[in-house]
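so ive been stuck on this for like two days lol. basically i have the seq below and the ligand is flavin-adenine dinucleotide, smiles is in there too. i just want the complex predicted, nothing fancy, no docking runs or whatever. if the output looks off dont worry ill sanity check it later, just need somthing to start from for the group meeting slides
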Amino acid sequence: MKTLQTDVVVVAAGLSGLAAAITAAEQGLSVIALEKSKTTGGAASMGMGPLAIGTRHQAAVGYNLTADEAFLKHMHWSHWMVDARLVYDYYRKSASTIEWLEDMGVEFVYRNTTLYTPTRMRSYAEPERTCHAVKPADGGRLGPRVAARMTKAMAERARELGVNIMLETPGKKLIAEDGKVVGVIAQSVDGEELEIRAGAVILATGGCGDNPEMIKEHTGLTWGKDLFSFRIPGNVGDGIKMAWDVGAARGEIKLDLMYQIPDNLAHFHLEGAFRQPVLWVNKLGERFMPEDCIANTCTTGNAINRQPGHTCFTIMDSATLKYYKKHGIDIFGIQGTDVFDYFDKEAEEALENGYPYFFKCDTIEELCEKAGIDLEGLQETLELYNSDCDDGYDSLFCKDRNFMRPVRKAPFYCIQSFPGAYGSFGGLKINYKTEVLKEDGYPIKGLYAVGTDACDIYGDTYPFMLGGNTMAFCLNSGRMAGENAADYIEKNR
Ligand SMILES: Cc1cc2nc3c(=O)[nH]c(=O)nc-3n(C[C@H](O)[C@H](O)[C@H](O)COP(=O)(O)OP(=O)(O)OC[C@H]3O[C@@H](n4cnc5c(N)ncnc54)[C@H](O)[C@@H]3O)c2cc1C
């Protein structure tokens, strides 16, 4: 077995791993970053950008949320079930992290608007303007994958600093001696075992979003049946299991839950068109929430998750479709404001390709038959809902009267959604120093965890009102771990 020696081993070179590796290298340490896949960047390469609080971009437009305010908002949201010191340190670090990234050449587009809700929406209280989207390469439209520029710049910076990024070299097992972690066993690209001895190890393997068995065990949901979450290949819980094997506490594993249609990126605008406050029902044909509250995709994901079959149906008639085509959307989501410009094309494609979660029907009976909705239930719902629309008053949920549009005129359009997720959360417990904790609350010396593997700071639901939170936690916990590992190594030299 080949043996290597280094100051720090970072297991994975996704977003949090790169942040940790760069920071440790900036402290003058030698760093090896093991990466399982052929490329760096992980899930972050699919996203838009991180949260930050107190940046110059925010100051420039007079938006003055402070880290203290965000901290309290976050802690109240999570019912103080999470580590307050970790959360506080994270928010206080977030503005400097934007500068740190800008020094690497990353550019951000900051918009002093909420992406997701016009003011009329009751979707969630007081959304904050925290997300800093990465500037697209061509200066074009903001959307999925723009953050790939950030992870690319980070990988370049890591290499510049001498970080040895070993691609296709997964970490397999931690080496623990006398209660301390002192290295990692990896599998090299040619299949051989590699022993890497180190002063400290930082786990950053991105959680278990690509491991349906672990998800089923911890959440009860079955991928492909009642869960259609993003799966980043290779994020199967390796770091979590490696730490559990050396005595780490078994933290809860949750999903970064939201809602989506299956294979959503292939029907991107069509999905956006249905993310409107029209009629939403469950399998029984019953409404289950006021539809002007659906703009928070995470809390809506929770609501859908508790419906029979963990699913829901969004229905609009052709009069409402005509209205939206003419007047535009009510809810502005990640799909943009022009989703109805693409409606006919994407709807036709979905029908031609036999996409099983989109329906266009001439009668309510046909819709119920095809979609599997209870006919009697939906008829009863429509009777009340349509008459409430005529009265301009939602007698069931008090939805804003501006969104009370009846469902009467054929053809009827419907899309079926399920719980989705960007990935998993947690599995490991860490303290404010990002040290991995044992069941007794004491740290395992020499072992740190960051990013999704250790993201246990939200309570039961992602705080959508502090957007960009997952990437930001990955970046900031990565930086904290790099600094703390450096201190630990210095003390133990
Ligand atoms: C479509 C999409 C859009 C998103 N948009 C946003 C957004 O706009 N803002 C936001 O805040 N968040 C967003 N997120 C979430 C955010 O991207 C993730 O939370 C974040 O990237 C996770 O970082 P991480 O370092 O924990 O994991 P990742 O970045 O996924 O990195 C994990 C890495 O670990 C590697 N790995 C796994 N096992 C091993 C092993 N045994 N050895 C070595 N390497 C291993 C993997 O190959 C991968 O490279 C989005 C997520 C998705 C899926």
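The chain has a mean pLDDT of 94. The chain has 14 helices and 15 strands.
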